[in-house]
Backbone:
């Protein structure tokens, strides 16, 4: 679903959490204790607790997926 991330404390049972975007999210990363999720239309959201999410970037057409070339 759009804007949903799934949380699990045991890796077997997952709870859906709505983020602060309606865009579909497809990737998740952690850096220095902050969760980052990214997805459609250049959306990036972040959270320090996995429950409360803040939109960092959304709708930037320069943010795309693809091959990086020299």
Residues:
């Amino acid at each position: 679903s759009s804007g949903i991330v799934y949380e699990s404390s045991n890796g077997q049972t997952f709870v859906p959490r709505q983020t602060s975007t309606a865009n579909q999210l497809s990737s998740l990363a952690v850096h220095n204790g902050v969760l980052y999720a990214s997805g459609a239309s250049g959306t990036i959201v972040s959270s320090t607790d996995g429950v409360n999410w803040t939109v960092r970037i959304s709708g930037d057409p320069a943010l795309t997926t693809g091959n990086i070339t020299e």
Q: What stands out?
A: Strands lie at 4-7, 15-18, 25-31, 34-39, 43-47, 54-57. The two ends are 35 Å apart (CA to CA). The chain has a mean pLDDT of 83.
